[in-house]
Amino acid sequence: MNANNQNSDPAEARLRRLLKEAALAPELPLGFQKAVWRRIETRAVESPEKLVSSALGILGWLLRPRVAMASLGAVLLSGVILGAAHGMAAHKEQARDRYLAAVAPMEIVP
Amino acid sequence: MSRRAAIFAVIGVLAVAGLGFATCYWVGHYCSDRRLSRQADELDWLRHEFKLNETELSRVRKLHEGYLPICRDNCERIAEKKAEFEQAMASGGTNFTPVAEQKLAEVALLRAKCQAAMLRHFYEVSQAMPADQGQRYLAEMRRLTLSAHERLEQSMSVPVRSGHEHHQ
Fold first, then answer.
1. Residue B152 is nearest to which of A75, A90, A109, comparing CB atoms?
2. Which ipTM was obtained for this model?
3. Is the CB of B29 less than 8 angstroms away from the CB of A87?
4. Which of A14, B43, B45, B60 pairs as cysteine with A96 (C-beta 3.0–4.6 A)?
């Protein structure tokens, strides 16, 4: 009897240790999965609406008189600057072609 | 703001901004082009591109004015020779006559002399500029004139092998 007890003791100890470590997973409530899917669907519908309302908010801010005038002014100024820069670049090319036509008329390859 | 009103507002704002931008772009382009064209001079490009001061520019202008009659003369001779060549071709009918071949060779010779005079002028102009600008000028003029022909010829010729192939 004693020998049997001694042999099973390590096994017993191991079993007891395993039982202690084991934790029962709580059972999921009824309808849990359905609820999760419903929440996912609701969020998917909500997010475009949130985006739209954020965009409308930004638009409303942009259409405030001061902000709108400042933005329009920036757009017009950038148009003038870009136009002038492009004009200068075009003039530079024309000036180069004028010089070439004077000194190397035979060499200009179309 | 309702969604519809917002969409119209966006379209309106974009249209106004776009129209305004395009108008200002055109105005800026027109004004700068007109202002710069009023000062048009054949050496404008040299002055701005190679940052020549008045002394350097007047040296270059002297060379330029001395070269123009030579260039005109060469162009006239080439034009005359080309006219003779065209005449020889026309009179030969469907044959390429020795006369036409001779005229073609004369046109080519005149062109080579014209190119030599042009290059000589480029070198003289480059020496009238500060050294670094002169080098840039020469490289740029070479790119704009001779290199254009070289690119055309290279596009039509077989690529030259480098001689570093492995022989089996």
1. A109
2. 0.74
3. yes
4. B45
